[in-house]
Amino acid sequence: MNPLTLWPVAASEQAARIDTLFAGLLVLSGAILLLVGGLLLAFGARYRRGSHVRRGELPGFLRRDVEIGWTAGTLFLALFLFWWASTLALRGNAAPPDALEIHVLAKQWMWKVRHPGGAREIDALHVPRGEAVRLVMTAQDVIHSFYVPAFRLKQDVLPGRFTEMWFRATRTGDYRLFCAEFCGTQHSHMGGMVTVMEPEDYTRWAAVQPREQDLAGEGAALFTALGCAGCHAPSAAVHAPRLEGLYGRSVPLADGSRVQADAAYLRDSILQPKRAVVAGYEPIMPSFEGVVDEADLQRLVAYIQSLGEAAR
Ligand code: HEC
Ligand SMILES: [Cu+2]
Question: d(Cα 161, Cα 265) in Å, to the nearest integer?
C-alpha cells in the first residue's frame, strides 16, 4: 500500500459503512461551509459601506420564526448525526456468536497472536475472508491500541482488562497493523501485517503452523499447577463452584445481584475473588493477584471458556 494514500482500501464490512458515514459528514460540512460562506459574502456585499439598503429593525417573522426554525433544524440535524454514528458504533460492538475467537497479547513492542487450533504468530495476523473474527485482547505492560486502517477499526488494549473487537474481512490481501497509542521508545515500530486469506487457504495455513498446545490446553495445566483444581475439581473436598458451563451463564452473587460470566468476570474472579462472591459459597478463594501474569490469565480464562463449550 502506498504510504501516502489518504483513503486506504476498505477491506472489511464495517469499513464500507464507516466510509459512508465519513463521506456523509464531509458532504454535510461542505454544504454548511458553502452556505455560511455564501451568506457572509452576500451580506458583506449587500451591506457594504455606503450601499443604499434598509438598515432599520428587522420585520417580526425574521426575528422570531426564522430564529426558532434554524435552531430546531440544526438540533435535529445534530441528533440525526448522533443517531447515525452511534448505531454504527453499537452494531460494531457485539460479535456474532459463531465468530472465530483469536487472542491477542500486546507488549512492548510486539503483538502476540494465538489462534484457536494452537497456531501462534508475532506481529502478524492471518484471518479467513468472509468470516466473523473476534479478537480478545489484553496488554502485558502499558496501554496499546490495535489499529487496522483498512478495516477502519481501532481498539485500545489495556493491561488488567480484556477488550474485544470484531470484524469480517471482505477482500484478501495484506493490510498494515499499527499500535495507535504511544507506548514507549519503540512505539513507532510496533506494528505488523494482517493477512486476509480465502477460508480454505486459512485452514491450510493454520494446519501447517508449528502446533503447540492451545491457550485452553496451557490453561488446564496451570489450573492444576496453581491449585485451582484442588478446590474446583469435582473430586475436591472443598465446597467450591464447578466451572463447567459457567462461561456465558448468569451467576447469582451473595449480595443478591446477578452477573454475566464473561471473560471480564472470570478474570475478576481470579484476581479479586472477594469482590463478587458466588451465592451459597464461603469467600475462601485466595486472590491470585501478583501470582499470575496477563499471559497466564489469558490461559486460565481460555480454559474455563473451553469448559463452557464442552458442556453446551
Ligand atoms: C481454596 C479453594 C479455592 C482455590 C485454590 C481456587 N478457588 Fe476459585 N473459588 C473458590 C470458591 C469457594 C468460590 C466461590 C466463592 C467466590 O466467588 O469467591 C470460587 C469462585 C471461583 C470462580 C467464580 C465461579 C462462579 O461460579 O462464578 C472462578 C472463575 C474461580 N473460582 C476460578 C479459580 C481459578 C482459575 C483458580 C486458580 C487460579 C481458583 N479459582 C482457585 C475456591 C477456590
Ligand atoms: Cu504499543
Answer: 10
